[in-house]
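How a chain folds remains the central question behind the approach discussed here. This step matters because it turns folding into a mapping between discrete strings. The sequence in question and its structure tokens are set out directly beneath this paragraph.
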Amino acid sequence: MLSLDYSTLNASSYSLPKSFLNQVAKLALERSTNANLNWQIIPSYLQKSITEEWDDLRTLGNKIVRILESNQGYVVVKNLAFCHYPRPIIDYLFASLALCLGNLTVHNSSNNTIWDVTHRSDTGGRERTFSELNVAAPFHTDSAFRTIPEKYFALWTIRAASDGGNSTAINVEELIQHLATSVSGRQCLEILHSYNFPFAVPPAFATHPDQIEIIEAPILTMGDRFSQDLFANTLANSPLIRFRLDSIMKGFKHYPELETPERLWAVRYFDRVLNTYPDKLEFKLNDGDVVFFNNHTMLHGRTAFSDRQRLLLRIRIDT
């Protein structure tokens, strides 16, 4: 069921200065004529232009960060005044906004900073990941398979699906409090925090696509304050969560010594709780909407859709 009350931020007052648009259009033209233009120099170029031409954008970025660092953990930015431009310009405007929150990271060995979230029928024989399919995406965190997952990520809706494709989300701090009300839930939390789990990197995001890449990490990292005493109280520190069930199950295949009864029970129990959790959010993103998530404190997913023209752009942001 769609959530009628979800966090939004109206950005209609943040107009795009013509001088900044000209800078971005020039950059887009340079990249269209020079495929070898190094993406790594672009963030500093955009940062300089933001400071000189569009400081209001940094104000918007600061507002987004304050919301992400609150218990809210996500926000949908609506009414951005620059959603109608051609795709090359949209890419750089999106990157400019994301740079106001932190540093952009690459998705894979191709150094893609912006990733198209859309149905792909052909990936050259490579296994497809959630963002390349139109089936439901189960609750997960982005980059669960990285040593330190990025803190934020954003999705810009270029074309919403005509049916389905709704965003879903769970606040992890509230989820932990829910789990802590039962003996099984507390046992699950203890295992997710105390044990390392193997996370296999999906081929789409591998540094070396021809190799199996796996990292070991706990699913919940609560720091020194994680103890039984916390289960009865509101958590004073936000948990760092990493979770992607398919990545963990593939990791077990390559690290069978980690596939212990305790770990298997805990991840399956946790996944069942996610699927039946009563306080999950579900909302539809419309064309031009940009959703930002705190990737350390929120789980997210997506409902299935049949409209294969659906297109979102994703940027991951480190701090």
